[in-house]
Amino acid sequence: MIEIEYIVKDRNGVERLRTTDKKAADAYDKALDNADRLAQLLRDDRVLPELPDSEMEELTIYLARNARNVERILKGKDPEPTPPDDRQQPRKDNVAPLKAAG
Question: Is the Cβ–Cβ distance between 97 and 20 less than 8 Å?
């Protein structure tokens, strides 16, 4: 049996996700890219200039992973409720795997 494994690394080469689900890997990679863009925006606009890089990374990954609810809030709507299964403790690197949209 052949099994393909996808490894998603951040821009520093740190492994963030290892999965056999291509959709999950793509979604996670997109979230990391969006988090980088958010961090750059916040740094360029000098929002939270004293925030350490590690905390900025945690914040922007959280926002990127929750983009649907962030968008709903910005449109004046309530966020969608989070199912109890998704309220797990974050992994040691503070980044839990994304679920593929579906």
Answer: no
